[in-house]
Structure formats: structure tokens, C-alpha cells
């Protein structure tokens, strides 16, 4: 089934060229189907690139998904045209009186910034408080996972000495093999990371009641969720395109940051060679599982009758 997005959104043409079914708004309105309403809070600087990446993953499902884009504030963007933001993005105030089936919160380049120093931290906190009462399931990605753990569990910011960058092996947790979020996963799988945040599994087990679903000896916790599946934390970037890590690496080189070469990304770890994708199938499966088991299977048919009491805890 398709995703429903504005006809003129740049992502629409890109996805059509990849033979992904994108439904025009006019056709969607004629169908007697209640699509899933998913809000994407895009915190990344290059918003067009990021929105396309996430929509690509949301499209790989038999469910019809109506995606709306949300911005954190109205500050001018250095990397996204103002016309694009004004045309396709909503301010929080315009959606705050509505309910949504799902919310995705992207990463942000704030790994070395303390939460209280994030310019929009108070507004971010208010959006997350709203989501707890108006959204069936929220998916936090990378920096958002760290921020979500702070808001839900008051966990302090934990930062690695060196940036974690590359593609790492992960293992699913045998204790939670029947959790629907990892249904269909291989015992070991690859996923990209690009972060300073530290998500040590033992630390999360000690200070939260999260189900730790997948971990890495090098990258720490990768996937965790509350038992009711209403909050899902992904510490890596399954949405990344084949060249996203490359662009980040070359940017840092140009800026004189002397970054380490992203691990397990270039053939022979040689940046002069074309990188290859080894995480695409896992990324699609993760998002399909989240849409199906954490959103579609739990959300009320009538969003106007959204109730926190309607959710059950099971595996």
C-alpha cells in the first residue's frame, strides 16, 4: 500500500522513480479507507533528505500511511528553503488539538550539547508531553532516543569520548525473541550509527523498565521499547541512504575535525572506494514491524476517541 504525502513534495518524485507507490491526495480522498496518521517531527538540518529517507521506510508496508511533517520552531533554516518549510511543514500549534496513530522524532546534530542548552528544549518537552496523551506510539531515533530517555526516565546525558560512526553488528536479545518489534529479524544484523550518545545496556536495565531488544558489543543498545510499545527507541540510523555516512565524513574532513573513517562502511575501510549498503532490509523490517504491531494493532479506529486506557501490554 502507498504512503499519502503532498503531491508537490520533493520526496514524491524521488520515491516514484524508485517504483514506490505514492498516492496523490486526490485519489486517497476517494478511498473508503482509514489511513494511519503519522506525524514526522524532523529535527535534522537537511530536511528534504531526511523526510525522503523516512518516507521510503514507511512505504514498505501493506498499510496506507498519511504522513504529516512537523517542524520544531519557525527559525530560518540554513539547509532547507523557507518556501519548502512554509509549504509542507506544520507548526505544533496547528496539530496540538488532534490525535495521531504514530509519531517519529528524528535525530539532531546535538550530540555534544547539554539538554538545557538546546534552544528548543522546553518546546520539545511540551511536544513529548502532548504525545503521551495524543499519540498511540512514538518512535525516537538517535538523539531523540537520548532526549526521550531523559524525559521519560530522567536519565542523565551520557556521552562517548569519541564519535561512534559506521555500520555495526547487533544481536537480538533471546529473552525477547517473541517481541513483535524484532519479528523476522535475523539473530545478527547490521545497522548504521552516527552519534556521541552512550546507550549502555546495563545502564538502561538498571534505571529503566525498558525491554532491551537488540544490542551491539561496540555500539551498545540499539533497540528498546516500553512494555506497552507506546515508546520505541532506536539509537542508530536505519533510515540512512548509502552515502549519508560518507557525506558526514567528508564534511567533517573539510571542517578539519580529523574524524575516524566510518567503520565497516567502505570496502576495506578505504574512503576512496564506493560505500555499500548492508542495512536496508533490516531498516524496512523494523519500520514495518513498528507500523503494524505498535501502531496499527493498538490504535483506535476513531482517533477522536483516543484514550490512554485503551492500550494493553503483551508480547
TrEMBL record:
Domain of life where this protein originates: Bacteria
Similarity remark: Belongs to the MetA family.
GO biological process terms held by the UniProt record: L-methionine biosynthetic process from homoserine via O-succinyl-L-homoserine and cystathionine
Broad EC category: transferase
HAMAP family registered for this protein in UniProt: MetA_acyltransf
Compartments in which it is found: Cytoplasm
Active-site residues, as the UniProt record annotates them: 142, 237, 239
Residues annotated as site: Important for substrate specificity: 194
Enzyme Commission (EC) number: 2.3.1.46
Main location: cytoplasm
MF terms (GO), sorted A to Z: homoserine O-acetyltransferase activity; homoserine O-succinyltransferase activity
Residues reported in the UniProt entry to bind substrate: 163, 194, 251
Marked site positions, Important for acyl-CoA specificity: 111
Gene that this polypeptide is encoded by: metAS
GO CC term, one of those recorded: cytoplasm
The protein's name: Homoserine O-succinyltransferase
Function: Transfers a succinyl group from succinyl-CoA to L-homoserine, forming succinyl-L-homoserine.
SUPFAM superfamilies the record matches: Class I glutamine amidotransferase-like
Amino acid at each position: 500500500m502507498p504512503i499519502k504525502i503532498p503531491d508537490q513534495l520533493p520526496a514524491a518524485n524521488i520515491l516514484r522513480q524508485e517504483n514506490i507507490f505514492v498516492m496523490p491526495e486526490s485519489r486517497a480522498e476517494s478511498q473508503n479507507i482509514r489511513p494511519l496518521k503519522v506525524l514526522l517531527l524532523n529535527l535534522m538540518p537537511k530536511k528534504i533528505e531526511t523526510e525522503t529517507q523516512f518516507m521510503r521506510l514507511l512505504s514498505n508496508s501493506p498499510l496506507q500511511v498519511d504522513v504529516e511533517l512537523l517542524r520544531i520552531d519557525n527559525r530560518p533554516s540554513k539547509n532547507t528553503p523557507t518556501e519548502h518549510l512554509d509549504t509542507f511543514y506544520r507548526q505544533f500549534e496547528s496539530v496540538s488539538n488532534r490525535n495521531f496513530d504514530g509519531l517519529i522524532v528524528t535525530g539532531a546534530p546535538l550530540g555534544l550539547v547539554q539538554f538545557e542548552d538546546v534552544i528548543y528544549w522546553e518546546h520539545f518537552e511540551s511536544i513529548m508531553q502532548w504525545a503521551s496523551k495524543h499519540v498511540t506510539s512514538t518512535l525516537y531515533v538517535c538523539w531523540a532516543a537520548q532526549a526521550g530517555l531523559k524525559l521519560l526516565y530522567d536519565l542523565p546525558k551520557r556521552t562517548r569520548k569519541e564519535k561512534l560512526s559506521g555500520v555495526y553488528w547487533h544481536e537480538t536479545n533471546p529473552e525477547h525473541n517473541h517481541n513483535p518489534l524484532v519479528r523476522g529479524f535475523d539473530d545478527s544484523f547490521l545497522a548504521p550509527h552516527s552519534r556521541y550518545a552512550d546507550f549502555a545496556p546495563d545502564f538502561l536495565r538498571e534505571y529503566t523498565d525498558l525491554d532491551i531488544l537488540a544490542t551491539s558489543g561496540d555500539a551498545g543498545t540499539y533497540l528498546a521499547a516500553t512494555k506497552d510499545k507506546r515508546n520505541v527507541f532506536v539509537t542508530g540510523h536505519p533510515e540512512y541512504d548509502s552515502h549519508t555516512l560518507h557525506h558526514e565524513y567528508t564534511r567533517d574532513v573539510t571542517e578539519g575535525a580529523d574524524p575516524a573513517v566510518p567503520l565497516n562502511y567502505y570496502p576495506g575501510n578505504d574512503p576512496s572506494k564506493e560505500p555499500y549498503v548492508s542495512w536496508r532490509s533490516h531498516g524496512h523490517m523494523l519500520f514495518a514491524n513498528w507500523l503494524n504491531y505498535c501502531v496499527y494493532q493498538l490504535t483506535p479506529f476513531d482517533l477522536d476517541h483516543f484514550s490512554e486506557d485503551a492500550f494493553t501490554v503483551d508480547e
